[in-house]
Every structure is written in C-alpha cells, then in structure tokens.
What does this fold into?
Amino acid sequence: SAVISQKPSRDICQRGTSLTIQCQVDSQVTMMFWYRQQPGQSLTLIATANQGSEATYESGFVIDKFPISRPNLTFSTLTVSNMSPEDSSIYLCSVKDSGGRDEQFFGPGTRLTVL
Amino acid sequence: AQSVAQPEDQVNVAEGNPLTVKCTYSVSGNPYLFWYVQYPNRGLQFLLKYITGDNLVKGSYGFEAEFNKSQTSFHLKKPSALVSDSALYFCAVRASRVGSARQLTFGSGTQLTVLP
It folds into this structure.
C-alpha cells in the first residue's frame, strides 16, 4: 500500500489568512484526491488533483478558495485561502492504488483550526 | 448519484460479543464497496473491500463484510469484539461502470464503542 505523509499535521490560523497543505506519496500514483472532514461529519471530496493540468473540483468547491497543485506523480498541495472559522476541518490527501487493486489510501490528515 | 447510508450513529457492544455495523448503498450498476476505520487523531485506514466474487469478504483485524445485492447492503461484522476496535467506521461506495464517477462516496460514519 502507498505511504502518504502530510504537512503540517495541524495548525491554528487567523481568519483571512491562507494555509498550504502538502501531500507526499512514496510511489507514483495516477489519481490523487483532497477530502475535507468537518467536525463530527463524514468525508467530502473537494477535488481530484490532476498531474500537469487543473484540478477537477466537486460541486460547492472552487479553485479560488482551494487552489491545488500537482507538479508530479508523488506530490500535491492544497491551499485553503482567505480562511474563516467555517474552514476548520481535517483535510485529507488520498491516492488511488495504481496497481489495479482498486484500493484508495488516505494520509493522516491536517487538522486546521481557524480562529 | 451514488450514496451510502449508515443508519446508526453509535453502536455499543460488550467485549467478546459479535458486532455488526450497518451500511446500505445506492449506485448505478455494480458497486465497489469499502470499509475504513478512523482512530482518534488518525487518518483513515483501509479495512476491506468488495469488488467481485465471494459475497463474504475478509479484511484486517478479523473484520468481515457481507455483500447483499438484493438488499443493497454491505454490513461490517466481527465475531468477537475487542475494546481496541472502538473507533469510527466509514462505509464507502464507488461505481464500477466505465465512465461513471470514479471517486468514493462515504457514509456518515458509525462510532463503535466496545465496552470492557
């Protein structure tokens, strides 16, 4: 299985600022995703990070608020821009297995608190 | 659109007793079904999956799940619960059909508490 690391693991930020979350995978993967888990809730897909092209955003999420980069097959970043307390969540990076086993793996998450 | 329902927010079971965490799904065509577990302050860990074949699938830590197509269910089970199984469990579905949405859709989660 892929090993996924995220930085930072947690942060406390002020309203109006931005935070960039990094996701590093130990192997090349085709598909990378970013999810949000709001307090006490399930996971919601923000976007699919596409290597070499713009990310594909789900309904309710826009690039201006959540810009995503994917410069290569092992790394991606998610920025949470102009933060408000409603952005306080756990943000998880996820990758889909490239070996045909159709499994999806998740990073440890970044716990964000916006004051 | 695909969806997953986990009807129980909370399941309590005594240690040593069997446990069941319920999941039903809705998807176009044949489903790919998954169970994940989330321990406090940790990411999601993959438990098991159903893609095709045997309706009873076995996964990590002694867990198993039974795919029931007629009832569109994929309940998670374990014959004898451990206190260390206490965690948040998520069921997820993805459509298998080519051209359909390839991302996972998650249920709302079920908090399992195993009482000593």
Remarks:
- The interface with chain B takes residues 1, 4, 31, 33, 41-45, 48, 58, 92, 96, 102-109, 111 of chain A (CB under 8 Å).
- Chain A is about 0% helix and 50% strand.
- The CA atoms of residues 5 and 24 of chain A lie 5 Å apart.
- The first strand of chain A starts at residue 4 and ends at 7.
